[in-house]
Amino acid sequence: MKAGYADPAPTEGRGLLLRTMLPGDVAEVMAIEQASFEAGWPATAFERELSQNQMARYIVAEQVALDSSRQLAGFAGLWLMLDEAHVVTVAVLPQLRGRGIGRLLVHGLIELARDSAMSVATLECRVSNAVARRLYAGYGFYEVGLRKRYYSDNQEDAVIMTTEELASPAYERRLVRLASHLQARIPGVRLMAER
Fold it and tell me: What angle do CA 37, 23, 116 make, to 5 degrees?
């Protein structure tokens, strides 16, 4: 599955490729994980997710330079559970945040969920993570509950968020609008999954 593609932007000399996470990506994913989360997953968890969890789908945003060198900028994952896509992680290298890469990853997850005929998407987010909550709200996630002391590192609560029906006309209009915004922010990006 190729969730999207960005040709190198001539003005910046590089581009972004959104693709399926591969076992060979785990070392770079771990560097992003450790830079992003105090109590992150170990490498073995990602290896298990990729090799043993049939519900799991992970994508990476890979920077491609003009000299064809590549570096992961971020990653994201979800589980396909019955008719619900459950977002389990989204992370971007700290020095690359604020450039639309997180939006690109969330967009890729939503497209993946829609391509897999999921009805809705859900997630948990730290109460204190206002940036992530705004990003998810932009993609139509709304707050439906609270999980008390959800995070083991500091006992912080998690906000439970979900979307409306992903196949609804209103959500489809939202996704088209968001794709247009992403294309303006990241020149050359192609967001729709290749079929």
Answer: 85
